[in-house]
């Protein structure tokens, strides 16, 4: 009788161990599947260029990826209805202005904005200028989307900004949606990936 009881106990033990192993395995593969899905939704592309230009302009690579995703979804040949071109969606006018700020480069044309290296270089330069002018990230992103002159006018309006630095309200729905999209992307990139001190992603 005792032998039968021991045999039953062993069967139950094997059952529970097997069930635990299966649950852990399922959890692992589900987690990896979810992580893979998130990496596809928020990809890392043009990493060597982003890492270099982010470092040169004292930017977080995660923020640069977030802007690229919101602007072009990583399409180097993207052109907007307003004429903005490339990965970080710079207009030819903004590009010409930025070239006066970037010493040492040769003169480029609007067609060069379709080059990932050039577009990211000048997109990062623009973003760094805006972050220096507007230390609040959301305000900088407003200027990236709506323009410096527009944001300066918003900041002067006490109904939109109490301190003249932070926008309490964003009057353009397109700009508000854009800022929300970039900040959401930024949160996701910081959650999904680990970055080393050089700004490169670390394999899990």
Write structural notes for this entry.
The chain is mainly alpha-helical. It folds into two domains: 1-41; 45-202, Lysozyme (Orthogonal Bundle), CATH 1.10.530.10. Helix 6 packs across helix 8 (173-192). The longest helix has 40 residues, at 2-41. The chain is built from eight helices and two strands; from the N terminus they run ααααααααββ. 62% of the residues lie in helices and 2% in strands. It has a two-stranded antiparallel sheet with strand order 1-2. It has helices spanning 2-41, 47-56, 61-72, 92-99, 116-133, 137-146, 148-156, 173-192, and strands spanning 194-195, 201-202. A hairpin with a 5-residue loop joins strand 1 (194-195) and strand 2 (201-202).
Q: What is the number of beta strands?
A: 2
Q: Please indicate the percent range of residues in DSSP E strands (runs of 2 or more).
A: under 5%
The averaged pLDDT comes out at: 88
First-last Cα distance: 52 Å
Inertia-based shape: globular
Q: What is the tally of helical segments?
A: 8
Q: Which architecture of the largest domain per CATH?
A: Orthogonal Bundle
Low-confidence spans: pLDDT under 50, at least 5 residues?
none
Q: What radius of gyration results from the CA coordinates? A: 24 Å
- Tell me the helix content: 55-70%
Order of helices and strands: HHHHHHHHEE
CATH topology of the largest domain: Lysozyme
CATH class of the largest domain: Mainly Alpha
Strand order of the largest sheet: 1-2
What class do helices, strands and sheet pairing give? mainly alpha
